[in-house]
Amino acid sequence: MSRLILFIDQPGREATMKTDIYQQVTHSIIEVIEAGQLGNGIHWEKETGKGMPVNFKTRAPYNGINVLLLWSAARQAGYASNQWLTFKQAAELGGMVRKGEKGVMCVFFKMLEIEDKDTEEEKKIPMASPFWLFNLDQVDGIGKLQPDAPKGEVQQIESAEQILKASGAVIKEARQKAYYRPLTDEIYLPERTRFADVKEFYSVALHELTHWTGAEHRLNRDFSGRFGSDSYAFEELVAELGSAFLNAELGFIGTMIPNHASYIDSWLTVLKNDKRAIFTAASHASKAHQYIMNLVAEQQAA
After folding, report:
1. Which of 79-83, 113-117, 218-222, 225-229 has the lowest mean pLDDT?
2. Each residue of 142-179: pLDDT tens digit?
3. What are residue 64's phi and psi, to 5 degrees?
4. What is the residue extent of each domain of the chain?
5. 13 and 52 in contact (C-beta within 8 Å)?
6. What gap in Å lies between CA 1 and CA 20, rounded to an integer?
7. 3-class DSSP string for the chain
């Protein structure tokens, strides 16, 4: 299995500010996907044992496209920490980013008020702004928190089973293929004994569970208007990313989704025609991930 890393070059701040952020990120991902055609498909490489990337000061997790950017940069540079800070935050905590270290460009979205030329009414549009993060491994003078002890395999499996049960999804194990059936709102999976590893079973189940969140009475995902004939393949990309985020919660290393390589050409077509598409996919994957984890939290609080 080929292992591909999503990574964005880190230019100087002034140069980056003049760059189309959407195009810069999208171009990098297109390169990864095109390189993947030489192997067995795309694998969103990450250090899942460390979980989702979080801000060291606020403890808030990052989401959307920033998860991919931070995972990939950490893997490329070999950082041991999943904790990140801005230059200013590091200084506020008494730390110092080491000389020569370069930050990872991430993206912040804010609403910009503009005047509609036709109606002369004020309207808000989303605007992407870059900001830079440094891994805790790049910072001196800050006492590092001891990372949580990694979950053992039994704990991982129990946590994965809890996610499936908390979702309330109807899951049936007795089919040749794994798929979500919108008509009956059911998930079908091969029996778990048919998988080489039980973690593989859960990784595929979480992929289908991400599809399940897109139902009209849940998150109501419908890409047919924007992506037309490529909408099905685009939904597969959302599900793959959603599964990756859920795998990070569990400490699993995500497996390849069977047969998803057949969607690669469609993904490339969409990304090349729409520079905002990967942002959309990552955003919807984050919403699906959060929707599922909220169900788990609600069950635990009951």
Report:
1. 113-117
2. 876 555 556 667 788 899 999 999 999 999 998 888 99
3. 60, -145
4. 13-140, 153-301
5. no
6. 33
7. CCCECCCCCCCCHHHHHCCCHHHHHHHHHHHHHHHHCCCCCCCECCCHHHCCCEECCCCCECCCHHHHHHHHHHHHHCCCCCEEECHHHHHHCCCEECCCCCCEEEEEEEEEEEECCCCCCEEEEEEEEEEEEEEHHHEECCCCCCCCCCCCHHHHHHHHHHHHHHHCCEEEECCCCCEEECCCCEEEECCHHHCCCHHHHHHHHHHHHHHHHCCCCCCCCCCHHHHHHHHHHHHHHHHHHHHHHHHHHHCCCCCCCCCHHHHHHHHHHHHHHCCCHHHHHHHHHHHHHHHHHHHHHHHHHC
pLDDT in tens, 7-56: 333 433 433 434 688 998 888 778 767 765 433 445 555 444 467 899 99
Both tokens of 37, joined, read: 């055609």
The two three-digit tokens of residue 219, written as one number: 């998150």
Closest CA to 188 of 205, 203, 200: 205
